[in-house]
Amino acid sequence: MSENKIHKEYTNDEITITWEPNKCIHAKACWKGLKTVFKPLKRPWIDPTGDTTENIIKQIDKCPSGALNYYYNNTKTMSEEVKQEPTVKMKANMNGSLKVIGSVEIELPDGSTVVKEGRFSICRCGLSENKPFCDGAHKGTDFDANWNIEKSE
Ligand code: SF4
Ligand code: FES
């Protein structure tokens, strides 16, 4: 599967914030959470000097799609999430997708594989036009992502 690989970088003294617009599902978590850094109406829209590096990293870690990431300038090492064992997190309707953290190889129906690292979201509403990945289409629908063990038995 070919992917549009636009990759942008924004640097302060300590880290470089990376942004891959094709992964962004416009969940708005970044600019609602840290308005001094993530400014969607400005160009460039990310100001890496707008808050402390610690606060920026905390906010980046909340990006549900993995569009935002970072690496340390001195070591070039990326977020710890890239290296961790794969984990899948389920949230209620607020974010209908399955959030995957870690490095995962996904086999697609045509037999090809794609490796995803860090953080990304898998569609579970069935509406994404970029399956198996979430493209934010669940928003604005009455999709009920609430789920628990009892319901599945
Ligand atoms: S998906 Fe990530 S980069 Fe895109 S708007 Fe949401 S928090 Fe920001
Ligand atoms: S869960 Fe987001 S598009 Fe389906």
Radius of gyration: 16 Å
Structural class: alpha+beta
The end-to-end span amounts to: 36 Å
Please give the CATH class of the largest domain: Alpha Beta
Low-confidence stretches: none
- Percent of residues in helical segments? 10-25%
The main pleated sheet reads as: 3 strands, antiparallel
Going by CATH, the architecture of the largest domain would be: 2-Layer Sandwich
Total strands: the figure is: 8
Strand content: 15-25%
Number of helices: 3
* Nearest-integer average pLDDT: 83
Instruction: Please indicate the count of domains.
Output: 2
Q: Give the ligands present.
A: iron/sulfur cluster, FE2/S2 (inorganic) cluster
Order of helices and strands: EEHHEEEEEEH
Main-sheet strand order equals 1-2-3
Backbone shape: globular
Describe this structure as you would to a colleague.
This protein has three helices and eight strands. A hairpin with a 3-residue loop joins β1 (8-11) and β2 (15-19). It has a three-stranded antiparallel beta sheet, with helices on one face. A three-stranded antiparallel beta sheet has the order 4-5-8, with no helix packed on it. The radius of gyration is 16 Å and the shape is globular. 11% of the residues lie in helices and 22% in strands. The chain has helices spanning 29-33, 53-60, 149-152, and strands at 8-11, 15-19, 68-72, 87-90, 98-101, 104-107, 113-116, 119-122. With 153 residues, the protein is α+β, with helices and mostly antiparallel strands. It has two domains: 8-78, Alpha-Beta Plaits; 81-134, no CATH class. The model has no long low-confidence stretch (mean pLDDT 83). Bound molecules: iron/sulfur cluster and FE2/S2 (inorganic) cluster. FE2/S2 (inorganic) cluster binds at residues 96-97, 123-125, 127-128, 134-138.
